[in-house]
């Protein structure tokens, strides 16, 4: 897994999931079968459905939860990496993007906010 800064509780929860699911390589989030985690990744629609359910359980309004998607998390991860000081190429590698233009669009607002903060 790429090394990026995460808060310690999130990292501990991820490690606990990887141990419980016996995940040592490949997809982190997988289909859950009757006998444990399967070998294939969650379907993109499942990711979105689970995300919306968890958002509602966390207290977000139905409108806020409905606005979320698995893609939101991917874009947010790119923005977090940029805010943490990672360059465009490492972000592309972590997210599996081939186009710098796509990633640049995702992170451009973070760059603008960071530059504005540096000028204060």
UniProtKB/TrEMBL annotation:
Give start and end of each Tyr recombinase domain.
Answer: 39-109
Q: Which GO terms describe its molecular function?
A: DNA binding
The UniProt record lists the keyword Repressor: no
Keywords linked to the UniProt accession: DNA recombination
Pfam families hit by this protein: Phage_integrase (PF00589)
Q: Which InterPro entries match?
A: DNA_brk_join_enz, Integrase-like_cat_sf, Integrase_catalytic
Write down what this protein is called.
Tyr recombinase domain-containing protein
Gene3D superfamilies documented for this protein: Intergrase catalytic core (1.10.443.10)
Q: Which organism is it from?
A: Prosthecodimorpha hirschii
């Amino acid at each position: 897994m790429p090394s990026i800064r995460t808060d310690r509780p999130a990292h501990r929860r991820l490690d606990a999931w990887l141990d419980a699911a016996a995940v040592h390589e490949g997809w982190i989030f997988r289909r859950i079968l009757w006998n444990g985690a399967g070998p294939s990744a969650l379907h993109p629609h499942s990711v979105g459905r689970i995300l919306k359910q968890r958002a509602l359980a966390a207290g977000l309004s139905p409108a806020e939860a409905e606005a979320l998607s698995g893609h939101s998390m991917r874009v947010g991860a790119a923005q977090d990496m940029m805010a943490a000081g990672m360059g465009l190429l490492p972000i592309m590698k972590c997210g599996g993007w081939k186009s710098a233009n796509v990633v640049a669009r995702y992170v451009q607002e973070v760059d603008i906010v960071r530059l504005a903060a540096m000028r204060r």
